[in-house]
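Message: A physicist's question: would you kindly supply an amino acid chain plus fold tokens?
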Amino acid sequence: MTTATATLPRGLVIAQAWSELGEAVAPLSNAAGRPLTRTVKLLLEPLVLRPVRNPEFAAGAVAIEHVDALRARIAEARPVLAATASWFVVLKSERRRLRLTEGNPQDLYFQRCFELATGHGPPGPDAVSIAAATLAEVHGQDGPTVGALRGFLSDAANAGELTRLIEATWAAMTVPRPEPVPAAVVAFLATCASAPDHRTFQALVTGSAGSAWAAELDRPGVAQAHGLTDRDRPARPELGERASKANLPKPFDRSILERLFAPLTNTFLRAGLAEVPVLVRQEIARSAGPWQLADEVSRVIMVLGREASADLAGATTGEAGSAAARLRSRWEREAYVHRVLRMPSAAPPGIRADVRDVRAAYLRRLWVRVHGRELRRDEVTADQVWDVLDGVLRSVILDQRDRLRAVLEREAGA
């Protein structure tokens, strides 16, 4: 007979270790003296605990034999964390002086401050000049900004014309003639992970296979079942007035502002984007296209993802080695999936829904991925298709695993 391993909630252990660091890390703490959520996500996890190298620190509960090691890891990092906190204060002060408003300071600066702390130690006499140079580097990226996007959409001189453009574009929209998924889709998915067939992929693109299947999305409930909308049928978008990364609607329910918001908040990716007026008009046209995407390659990838993810929601049908079989195998290897499915019906409904509706989450993330590539004019080749399909599932798994861990830590703390 075996006994369960004694554990402590990871969040509790981190909070206790953090409290020992004192006032030096107050700028990285909340009012209760615990590390901010972004402190854990951006600093402690990737730069101090490093759960990839130290899997004993990765789970929501830490085995008793590893608790002291986790606490020691945080205690040993006190000098660099204290310096990080001090640099964050300096960067925020310089940000106010320069009247910068773009982005969340924690998202933009936490890891930069850790780099400064590692390279320079605590702020010295030249701290202001170093902070100014850092801010110039962060905010000096080329490309459109969220502020410019909001200003363009809210300008009365533009809003009326853009609203009429949405109405005209959607009125002129033609729904493709529905056709069955071609056999070439199954043929390409059978080998794309190991030996992608370039001719087959090109035939799918030139034959408009992605657009043809998109006709189904206009039928009641289809796009909704694919996780792309909460409506019975897709509807034309509004221009939008506000957007938040933490509360973005599903792709087909987003305003023009929301569709462009997330890409423009990434200072490292926006350098390759078009100017705001061009982006907005392109997005309006894109919203009325099949799959609400502009390029046939993107639409074909959505069909490939739809077929490859079918096994995630039901019985295994894909042949060994096919994209569907590989995705299903990756999904079934996840211990947290089995844990959630064993949870009682009283378990947090959002967590159970994440696992049970994984195919919808997958297709939603796939749409966001190919939409972002379209904005950057970064076309997917036949050789890259499997990396995209597999990468999307890995991204969904990481998100769901993090949400489950957060829920279990909150419940354990309560």
Remarks:
- The chain has two domains: 1-140, 173-236+288-413.
- DSSP finds 20 helices and two strands in the chain.
- Residues 173-236+288-413 form one domain.
- The two ends are 30 Å apart (CA to CA).
